[in-house]
Write a structure and sequence with these properties.
disordered N terminus; about 140 residues; four-stranded antiparallel β-sheet; 4 helices; single chain; 4 strands
């Protein structure tokens, strides 16, 4: 029996990713916010540590949204919006919640993007590492979906 939802990010998987990112951040003693969005950019899961800076809630969501829109980790997009980059005016030209700071990573199943995770609250390098660690824990083969 074919499950039509195998190509979507389930709430269960979104919450698994959220817990994994919070776990690795907690181990590093870094209070963070974590957002997980589906392939359309809609928020599926969110949690902010009570000690995380308030803006981290917004940044984590924007990082996830940016990763899904560009189908790329936000860490790979930073140079594109620098003053000499090809998209340097993009963040202000669009009325979209884009953020070109490391910490957002697409979530793929069988090569297809099904969602993204964004982490905010640490350094950009920490946020990227926490998001990457979380996505590496997800059971993303079709049999486990």
């Amino acid at each position: 029996m074919n499950n039509p939802h195998n190509d979507t990010l389930t709430t269960r998987l979104a919450e698994t990713a959220l817990r994994a990112a919070h776990h690795v951040a907690h181990e590093a003693r870094v209070p963070v916010s974590v957002s997980v969005v589906d392939a359309g950019g809609s928020l599926l899961a969110f949690r902010r540590d009570e000690r995380a800076v308030l803006i981290s809630g917004e940044t984590s969501t924007r990082k996830a949204y940016t990763a899904i829109q560009f189908d790329s980790p936000t860490a790979d997009l930073v140079d594109l919006v620098k003053p000499d980059g090809p998209f340097h005016t993009l963040p202000t030209a669009l009325d979209r919640p884009l953020l070109f700071i490391a910490g957002g990573i697409p979530i793929r199943r069988d090569g297809e993007v099904i969602g993204a995770i964004g982490v905010g609250g640490g350094t950009p390098q920490q946020d990227h590492a926490f998001a990457a660690a979380a996505t590496s824990t997800l059971p993303l083969d079709r049999a486990s979906a």
